[in-house]
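User: Design a sequence. Structure:
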């Protein structure tokens, strides 16, 4: 069924488990970006620096990467449903820690726990949504999964900003609302069927470093590098952009700051929607070139301090990230077979390295050179990497490397 067609009643009924899993996915990801517009309030309350903000942000990414490194195949072993329920439990614990937070140590503990939750969810929930899809709806399910991921990440700053700006208890109420959403998502997920036919008990799970089946290794390197660049753009918007907005552009309304961050994730979701209409072999290099333009616009913004250009950078760069994410997930999951959870976890491990390491670098450079200069350096490095990957994917050798993919695209 194409995206433009309306599903029949039977298709709608059979689609509800996929939609429910995607909803739980979105709820968990909302919690990971909920603090984005609140960091300024935390800095005022507890007196830490901009570098500390990037370190707190990196603690979250460390939690994600730790789980993806050592437990990336957990859902392949114990089942998707069990793994996602564990992720929801950790998301609830994270919100509870933020509710009680009274200083930097608890803030970092809450972020670490949130990272553990996201680490379990990124691979497991993506695979779960794909496997709960109705027959013949793999492409639609890939869009639903990645849109739930990016949509949740984008809604987090908006929810946090709106509640902090216009409701009481700005450092408490956002987490209470998210805790209630998490409990509701847990109740829904509890009713979903298991998709791993030979799921094993918890005691069968064990630490295992990511390993890729031979069938996906050639595709993984460019897809992983493109994912690294795409997520570095999102990391820039969710960590240091609020500081630039308030001190560089004079935007102090927390809801408005959340809205600017949302723009990048809205661009990502739009890019994913458009990417469904084309083959991954076309959209992956295109996404790299859009990321190049997006980082260029970020550099312009940091030089001339223009909110309009910043919003354009968010839309264009976000669309490029969406193209990259959707194309990578579609390519890798179609080749992964029974190791889908492990392969997707390995991809998100590389992607989350992109959302953390460059941002920490910006924080370190900003303390010596200032935020605009540090941001321009990041934009130059990531722009160059996206250009290299895009050109590699556009070479004739790469274009002819996977005829089966072209045949599949033609059949679509």
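Assistant: Done.
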């Amino acid at each position: 069924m194409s995206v433009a067609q309306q599903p029949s009643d039977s298709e709608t009924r059979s689609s509800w488990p996929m939609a429910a899993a995607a909803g739980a996915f979105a709820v968990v990801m909302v919690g990971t970006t909920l603090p984005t517009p609140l960091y300024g309030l935390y800095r005022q309350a507890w007196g830490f620096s901009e570098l500390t903000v990037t370190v707190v942000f990196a603690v979250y990414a460390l939690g994600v990467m730790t789980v993806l490194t050592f437990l990336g195949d957990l859902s392949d072993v114990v089942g998707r449903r069990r793994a996602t329920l564990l992720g929801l439990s950790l998301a609830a614990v994270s919100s509870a820690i933020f509710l009680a937070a009274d200083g930097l140590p608890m803030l970092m503990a809450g972020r670490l726990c949130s990272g553990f939750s996201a680490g379990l969810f990124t691979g497991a929930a993506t695979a779960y949504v794909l496997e709960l899809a109705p027959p013949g709806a793999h492409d639609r399910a890939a869009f639903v999964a990645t849109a739930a991921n990016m949509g949740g990440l984008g809604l987090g700053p908006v929810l946090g900003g709106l509640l902090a700006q216009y409701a009481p208890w700005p450092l408490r109420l956002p987490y209470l609302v998210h805790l209630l959403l998490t409990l509701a998502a847990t109740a829904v997920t509890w009713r979903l069927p298991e998709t791993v036919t030979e799921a094993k008990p918890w005691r069968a799970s064990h630490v295992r470093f990511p390993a890729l089946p031979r069938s996906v290794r050639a595709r993984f390197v460019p897809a992983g590098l493109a994912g690294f660049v795409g997520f570095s753009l999102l990391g820039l918007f969710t960590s240091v952009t609020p500081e630039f907005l308030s001190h560089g552009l004079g935007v102090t309304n927390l809801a408005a700051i959340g809205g600017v961050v949302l723009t990048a994730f809205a661009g990502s979701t739009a890019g994913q929607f458009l990417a469904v209409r084309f083959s991954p072999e076309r959209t992956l290099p295109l996404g790299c070139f859009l990321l190049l333009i997006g980082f260029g616009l970020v550099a312009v913004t940091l030089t001339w301090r223009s909110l309009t250009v910043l919003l354009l950078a968010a839309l264009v760069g976000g669309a490029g990230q969406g193209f990259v994410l959707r194309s990578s997930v579609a390519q890798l999951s179609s080749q992964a077979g029974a190791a889908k959870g492990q392969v997707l976890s390995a991809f998100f491990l590389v992607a989350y390295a992109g959302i953390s390491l460059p941002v920490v670098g910006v924080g370190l450079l900003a303390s010596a050179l200032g935020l605009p200069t540090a941001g321009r350096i990041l934009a130059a490095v990531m722009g160059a990497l996206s250009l290299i990957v895009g050109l590699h994917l556009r070479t004739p050798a790469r274009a002819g490397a996977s005829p089966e993919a072209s045949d599949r695209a033609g059949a679509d």
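Confidence is low (pLDDT under 50) at residues 1-13, 397-412. The chain has one domain: 14-195+215-411.
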